[in-house]
Write a structure and sequence with these properties.
The complex is a heterotrimer of chains A (about 170), B (about 450) and C (about 375). Chain A has 5 helices and 6 strands, in the order E-E-H-E-E-E-H-H-H-H-E. Chain A has about 170 residues and is of the alpha+beta class. Chain A has a 5-stranded mixed sheet with strand order 2-1-5-3-4, covered by helices on one side. The longest helix of chain A has 13 residues. By secondary structure, chain B is of the alpha+beta class. Chain B folds into 2 domains: about 200 residues, Aldehyde oxidase/xanthine dehydrogenase, a/b hammerhead (Aldehyde Oxidoreductase, domain 3), CATH 3.90.1170.50; about 200 residues, 2-Layer Sandwich (Aldehyde Oxidoreductase, domain 4). Chain B has 12 helices and 15 strands. By secondary structure, chain C is an alpha+beta fold. Chain C folds into 2 domains: about 180 residues, Aldehyde Oxidoreductase, domain 4 (2-Layer Sandwich); about 140 residues, 2-Layer Sandwich (Aldehyde Oxidoreductase, domain 4). Helices cover about 25% and strands about 25% of the residues of chain C. Chain C is built from 6 helices and 15 strands. In chain C, the strands form 5 sheets. In chain C, strands 1-11-12-13 form a 4-stranded mixed sheet. In chain C, helix 4 crosses helix 5. The longest helix of chain C is centred in the first third of the chain and has 28 residues. Classes of the chains: A alpha+beta (about 170), B alpha+beta (about 450), C alpha+beta (about 375).
């Protein structure tokens, strides 16, 4: 079987019913898709297949023979981050990082498909992605900011609008 | 200050967003075997026969690890704190919860390892199981834990109960205008890190072991591994520090020791990654708490005293439960100053997964109980919930259940701030209140004796 | 049949550091010949941000830019002992260890710079990667030059080590629980208001908003604090309404075995979250830090339960508050079974749940 993975043509030797996740991770050594549950429940293994987000753990590799597969490695590099990647840094949308790659892939498809900056719309598109760290607040902000067309300073992070700061009286020292 | 307090990005942020952060499952080692575990299918049973011969003889199987391979089978997570160990690394002749590991197989592939697990022959003699902590004290209850019985019995002074006694609870009950009791039961919760338990153990040519670990506590895990394997700490190198979520569930060294044993026995690198199903059904989780609170209160809203019974469902083995209960007991007045206390707490064993740490360990369920109870008491008194809480809120030099003076309590300030943020109008007296040491109307007779003299936190 | 709204309040406190303490962290730091700083610490980063926060503390304390700091927590050969990332101890305890190590490095930098500049170290300060004479900023040399001089002129290695151990508190009287010293490093406080909608036909509870006020000590990095508090709020929502390893507790049957059968909160359950972060520096934490990672999921379950009572007048005290439990409580209310027993001064709720209803082996009461 043939796949184009992150713009590189690859020949796949794994058995045809192997999951795309296993092929990517174990045969091709592309480790950004994560085996969070291997049953389609968490979203951590999401990759783009011909531009559409797919759960690679539920996708038999033979079903995508000839397809173009994009993982987060193919979206941007440390020297040349995509806007979604920049937004995830600037808005602190990644904590432990394990769900992040799948979310960035799915958010890239959402924004690329003309998705709005409305958090309800974003939530509907990405609700199948579990994140146990962030409470989703800053993930939604990151995706909304990309959809709005913001530019991002990756040397600093943004405060969410939902936070205010005060100092307790007598504790100014 | 410039750097501290600055909104700098995550140190590891670029790695996280480009797929280049290396988690344990991403570690690649030539010649790596894969492991799978045989786990108990019963809640409580004797193992009458364990035969690994057929499994070990299968093509592609390189090691089958059982209890006989563990140099020190029982090591207590809190043995450093004087709490005896009770849990074998692998079950020997008795399984006490469904999912308890009995053997670990290392093979060329995960599929072979799983097939070999299925080929291990185990005969069980099933025994009655106990699940309800409220029944653990009964004389005819099945005995769950060989070391401690049905509840932990080795607190300081050989007590079988974690006690707090402060002031005079009987006098408080006598003086109360109202005595309000309630029962609160919080559940078991799985930490659900997106990264399941995972380990890669590598035997090095110099005889050392390199262990790629997902632990939240590398040195703690180093100690646990070296104790079970009876090795000096110089013989094991833990590699980790980058964890795909923990929330407390990756403190108790679930996979490192067994993977290390499989690597030792096979002489090859071994990876053991738990399936999501194993993570959900066999990993240590937040334990359930059964809490009964009886508050003695006055009609003008002072809490004079609290009696509390807590029963912590530890599951089959102790792990950190005694620690969790002790912490629970130290905080059982919540954010309030209650001068007369009578607390009894028990760690009770059941045939469930041994429970472990999770965010807020020992206190999350407690805070839940205390705050629903506070709301009930306020309603019974016909009192505003803010006024009731602010009046009883702990203040500078009020003392905790274990007699430590509060140094910088901010219960008053967080409540005032929350009221402002939610548009709740507090009366003048409540708005003017501060955390400063009690005086005047805020220092009724019953709170005088409990005032401490500083030096706490 | 209708949807009812309600609001509920809860207040919590939580310790920083292990109860009874006695949980050490250690760190060491070396400076490369170009002044760049390598920190070795054994603290795992579980997403909480230990790598970031400890690097910030080191950069601040030595007086070099953040991007001069390399942080290595990768293994137990090169990093010294750290008990671990739990008990809300990483920022406070391990942060103090790197702080102390960084202070030593700063002293060593000043000592070498003093010889190079021929000025008393007490008259020197370090900031932004530069050592300068107090009051005469023009007279200065870079930390990179100092490190180079240390290496190639003086034959010295600029290092520092630090360890932090909160003294272990002992229970001196097990019958009363009295301890000999504080069993925690600091205490944080918080309050939360939940606003909910309860559907009295389905029993469904939807959390509309969580408004929270937190005593955070001092924010080492405000964005990271916000991330902890948001994440904790949603975990608290899961605890309050959704998650249960044993849905038929106390029996152990019908357990959720995956992400599709155990309900972790998703974006679909996300309420509006508003936070007030209150600085109240601790006396012993690095730069006044407290640990708030864990406590951030403690206030929401009770606030939600109290809001449900406000909405529909029932107390649910077994968690999580599932639709089944809400409907059972509403049924009990409509059938007149929900009132507590009131006798004289006694108001007794939930007697059917009490251990007294299950066994005579342990009796309990006022």
């Amino acid at each position: 079987m043939e796949l184009t993975v992150n713009s590189v043509a690859r020949t796949v030797q794994s058995p045809p019913l192997s999951s795309l996740l296993t092929v990517l991770r174990e045969e091709l050594d592309i480790t950004s898709p994560k085996a969070g549950c291997e049953s389609g429940g968490c979203g951590a293994c999401t990759v783009l297949v011909d531009g559409q987000p797919r759960r690679s753990c539920l996708t038999a590799v033979c079903a995508v023979d000839g397809a173009e597969v994009t993982t987060v490695e193919g979206l941007g590099t440390p020297e040349d981050l995509s806007r979604v990647q920049q937004a995830f840094i600037h808005h602190y949308a990644a904590q432990c990082g394990f769900c992040t790659d799948g979310l960035i892939v799915a958010a890239t498809a959402y924004v690329g498909g003309g998705g709005s900056a409305d958090t309800g719309d974003i939530g509907e598109a990405l609700a199948g992605h579990y994140c146990r760290c962030t409470g989703y607040v800053k993930i939604l902000e990151a995706v909304a900011a990309v959809a709005r067309g913001d530019t991002f300073d990756t040397a600093s992070t943004a405060s969410s609008a939902n936070n205010t700061y005060v100092t307790i009286a007598g504790a100014e020292s | 200050m410039k750097v501290v307090g600055a909104r700098l990005p995550r140190y590891d942020g670029v790695g996280h967003v480009t797929g280049r952060t290396t988690y344990v499952d991403d570690v690649r080692v030539p010649g790596m075997l894969h492991a799978a575990a045989l786990r108990s299918v019963h809640h409580n049973a004797r193992i009458t026969r364990l035969d690994t011969g057929a499994a070990a003889a299968m093509a592609g199987v390189h090691a089958v690890v059982t209890h006989a391979d563990v140099p020190l089978l029982v090591y207590g997570h809190l043995s450093g704190a004087g709490i005896p160990g009770d849990e074998p690394l692998l079950a020997k002749d008795h399984v006490r919860y469904r999912g308890q590991p009995i053997a670990l197989v290392a093979a060329d592939t995960v599929d072979i390892a799983r097939a070999a697990c299925a080929a291990i022959e185990v005969d069980y003699e099933e025994l009655p199981a106990l699940f309800d902590v409220r029944l653990g004290f009964d004389g005819d209850a099945p005995v769950i834990n060989d070391t401690f019985g049905n509840w932990y019995d080795q607190y300081e002074g050989n007590l079988d109960v974690r006690q707090i006694r402060k002031g005079d609870i009987d006098a408080a009950m006598d003086a109360a205008d109202l005595i309000v009791s309630g029962v609160y039961r919080t559940q078991s919760v799985e930490q659900v890190p997106l990264e399941t338990q995972v380990c890669v153990a590598i035997p090095e040519p110099d005889g050392r072991l390199t262990i790629h670990t997902c632990t939240q506590a590398m040195y703690f895990s180093l100690g646990v591994v070296c104790s079970h394997l009876q090795l000096p700490m110089s013989q094991v190198k833990m590699v980790g520090g980058t964890v795909g979520g923990g929330f407390g569930g990756k403190v108790d060294t679930a996979s490192d020791t067994l993977t290390a044993l499989a690597a030792q026995k096979s002489g090859q690198p071994v990876k053991w990654r738990w399936t999501r199903e194993e993570e959900m059904l066999a990993s240590g989780n937040r334990g359930p708490w059964h809490m009964e609170i009886i508050d003695a209160v006055t009609s003008d809203g002072w809490i004079l005293g609290r009696k509390m019974l807590t029963i912590h469902d530890a599951g089959a083995y102790g792990r950190f439960s005694v620690y969790g209960l002790t912490k629970h007991s130290f905080h059982h007045t919540g954010a309030y100053s209650i001068p007369n206390l009578h607390f009894d707490g028990y760690v009770v064993f059941t045939n469930k997964i041994p429970t472990t740490a999770m965010r807020g360990y020992g206190v999350t369920g407690l805070s839940t109980a205390i705050e629903v109870h506070a709301e009930r008491v306020a309603k019974e008194l016909g009192m505003d919930p803010y006024e009731f809480r602010l009046k009883n809120a702990n203040r500078v030099n009020d003392t905790s259940p274990n007699r430590i003076a509060y140094e910088d309590p901010s219960t008053v300030e967080v409540l005032q701030s929350l009221a402002a943020a939610t548009g709740v109008e507090l009366g003048d007296g409540l708005r003017a209140m501060t955390r400063e040491q009690r005086s005047g109307d805020m220092l009724p007779d019953h709170l005088v004796a409990q005032i401490g003299s500083g030096g706490g936190h | 049949m209708a949807v009812h709204r309600g609001k509920g309040l809860a207040t919590v406190e939580y310790p920083t550091g292990m109860n009874q303490n006695g949980d050490p962290s250690q760190a060491w730091i070396k400076v490369k010949p170009d002044g760049r700083v390598d920190v070795f610490s054994g603290t795992a980063d579980i997403g909480n941000g230990s790598k970031t926060v400890q690097s910030q503390i080191v950069a601040e304390t030595i007086g070099v830019p953040y991007d001069w700091v390399t942080y290595d927590n990768s293994n137990t050969d090169s990093s010294p002992m750290c008990t671990g990332t739990f008990a809300s101890r990483a920022t406070f305890v391990a942060g103090n260890a790197v702080l102390k190590a960084a202070r030593q490095v700063r002293e060593r930098i000043l000592a070498v710079a003093s010889r190079e500049l021929e000025i008393d170290p007490a008259d020197l300060e370090v900031a932004d990667g530069s050592v300068s004479v107090k009051g005469t900023p023009a007279k200065s040399m870079g930390v990179d030059e100092v490190a180079g001089a240390a290496t190639f002129v003086h034959g010295e290695l600029l290092t520092g080590d630090g360890a932090h151990l909160n003294p272990g508190a002992a229970i001196i009287d097990p019958t009363t629980g009295e301890v000999d010293k504080p069993p925690h490093a600091a205490i944080s406080y918080a309050a939360c208001t939940a606003e909910v909608e309860v559907d009295d036909e389905t029993g469904d509870v939807r959390v509309l908003s969580l408004t929270q006020a937190y005593d955070i000590g001092r924010a080492m990095n405000p964005t990271l604090v916000e991330g902890q508090i948001d994440g904790g709020a949603v975990m608290g929502l899961g605890f309050g309404l959704l998650e249960d390893c044993y849905p038929y507790y106390p029996t152990a049957e019908h357990r959720g075995d995956g992400m599709n059968t155990y309900h972790v909160p998703t974006m679909a359950e996300l309420p509006e979250i508003k936070n007030v972060l209150m600085e109240n520096p601790s006396s012993g934490g690095p730069y006044g830090a407290k640990g708030i990672g864990e406590m951030s999921n403690n206030a929401q379950p009770a606030a939600i339960a109290n809001a449900i009572h406000d909405a529909v007048g029932v107390w649910v005290t077994e968690f999580p508050i599932t639709p089944e439990r809400v409907l059972a409580a509403l049924d009990a209310k409509s059938e007149g079974r929900s009132e507590p027993r009131r006798e004289g001064r006694v108001v007794a709720f939930d007697e059917e749940l009490s251990i007294n209803s299950f066994t005579s082996a342990k009796t309990w009461g006022a």
